[in-house]
Amino acid sequence: MQTVLVFCHPRRDSYNGTLLSAVTECIEKKGRSYKVIDLYADGFDPRLDAQDLVLYEKGQTTDGKVKGYQKMLKASDELIIIAPIWWYELPAIFKGFLDKVLLPGFAYERDKNGDLVGKLTNIKRTTIITTSEAPAYTLLKPQASYVRSILMKGALTDIGLKNIIWKHIGNMNSPRGEKKRKDFLVDIKHHFTMAP
Questions:
Q1: 2-194: which CATH topology?
Q2: N or C: which end of the chain has fewer CB within 10 A?
Q3: Which pTM does this prediction carry?
Q4: Which helix (H) or strand (E) holds 9?
């Protein structure tokens, strides 16, 4: 099995890019294989157009990139998402990734009551790494808890993911930002060095 990383930042020379490099370095040191889905570099189109909507319930899409992304997810036992928080959420390109890639029949099916049954149970561990200029506490307010309530307890759990961890750095450009970024990088490296 392998690790798949979903990178959701338009610039590799950003702090998010630094985090991606640190994580992949830790994975390489463990001798694990990995794949990076770089949504911006791939030119991924997050829009679900009319044709895709017609095909959605059949678990199909017109987007040629989707099957490749699905193949990577199915071949993985670990998922890592690296993204900034913009206006309390991950970038829109990530929402489009969820909409277009997590298709019925691939990511989930419905039971006789219509409830979702997750099919990506091959992914045993998920880590979400986010960054923001806003203080971390603002993301814990009920109206701003997208990562915890919508993503972790909703979408990712619904498709069968377990052991979901969220690592976040807030206030990263504050006067203490440089130290915070260095400390967070150490924490991330430690997390992935200690993880099985």
A1: Rossmann fold (3.40.50)
A2: C
A3: 0.94
A4: none
Query: Rounded CA gap, 89 and 176, in Å?
Result: 24
Which long-range CB contacts under 8 A does 16-25 form with residues at least 24 apart? 16/82, 16/83, 16/84, 16/131, 18/185, 19/82, 19/129, 19/131, 19/185, 19/188, 20/82, 22/185, 22/188, 22/189, 22/192, 23/80, 23/82, 23/129, 23/188, 23/192, 25/189
Q: According to DSSP H, which parts of the chain are helical?
A: 15-29, 50-56, 64-74, 92-101, 157-158, 177-194
Instruction: Say whether 36 sits in a helix, a strand or coil.
Output: strand
Per-residue pLDDT of the chain (196 residues; tens, 9 = 90+): 899 999 999 999 999 999 999 999 999 999 999 999 999 999 999 999 999 999 999 999 999 999 999 999 999 999 999 999 998 889 999 999 999 999 999 999 999 999 999 999 999 999 999 999 877 777 766 655 788 888 888 999 999 999 999 999 988 887 787 899 999 999 999 999 887 6
Give the CA-trace dihedral at 41, 47, 49, 53, to 10 degrees.
Answer: 110
